[in-house]
Amino acid sequence: MPRTVAIVQARMGSERLPGKVLKEVLGRPLLEYLIEQLSYSERLADAVIATSDLPRDDVIEEAVRRFDVRVFRGSEQDVLDRYYRAAAAFDADCVVRITADCPLICPTVVDRTIDDHFKSGCDYTMNDVPETIPRGYDVEVFSRETLDRTYEAARRAADREHVTYYIYTHPKKFSVNRFRDSDFPRFPTDRLCVDTEEDFEVVKAVIENVYKEGRYMHHVEVLDFLEANPAPANINAGVKQKDVTEAGLKPW
């Protein structure tokens, strides 16, 4: 199997909730939960944190080192360049893109998306967020060759700021696969990511009630908890996802 590496983009300068990746639940930062979740993947050869080279992101590097996870630092604005250089530095044949606002990311979802990507033979695979999979379980998979082609072709600021934006807006240049995971029979909320304080309160409630040391939080048990306890899911019901458009696109 090609060497498959998860590259997790993380920074302290989030517009709506600065410092969210290191906000704590049960005495541990969200980024640590994400790293632990990924550690249970059976398909990933490695997982690295890709943050910016700005001084304010020094704390992310310090935190990651404590978790015994490797880190790559690069441009804040040109996130495509950051991924391109991180993939080369960690010898990735295949890249799995994860964002640090997904601390509940489930390793089985990651693995099933990777498997579907290789089965499809396409250049790029995204899972079906938010149509059949809640936000917070976002997974994108693409080959190193696809990343290299994108790096050479993408020139506009919007294409550089969002790693895969150029790929899925140029379907004549890249074959695109959308993975619809049948393991999501229902979900009571479409926001299990962390982009606002309201989102954080939802994820905090999930972790406090679902997390147990020594095993990962399976997405089905997370959904079971929220179905049985609808109050947390209502906290961020009014939060709108920021549109990914050329006019409004910002680096995560």
Structural summary, described in words:
With 252 residues, the chain is an alpha/beta fold. The protein has a single domain (4-184), classed as Spore Coat Polysaccharide Biosynthesis Protein SpsA, Chain A (Alpha-Beta Complex), CATH 3.90.550. Helix content is 37%, strand content 15%. The strands form two sheets. Strands 5-4-1-6-8-7-9 form a seven-stranded mixed β-sheet, with helices on both faces. It has a two-stranded antiparallel sheet with strand order 2-3. Helix 2 links the parallel strand 4 and strand 5. Helix 3 packs antiparallel against helix 5. The longest helix is centred in the middle third of the chain and has 14 residues, at 107-120. The chain is globular and about 45 Å long. The two termini are 30 Å apart.
Strand order of the largest sheet: 5-4-1-6-8-7-9
> Secondary-structure element sequence?
EEEHEHEHEHEEHHHEHHH
How would you classify the helix and strand content by structural class?
alpha/beta
User: Any idea what the CATH superfamily is called?
Assistant: Spore Coat Polysaccharide Biosynthesis Protein SpsA, Chain A
Secondary structure tally, helices? 10
Q: Tell me which CATH architecture applies here.
A: Alpha-Beta Complex
Fraction of residues in helix = 25-40%
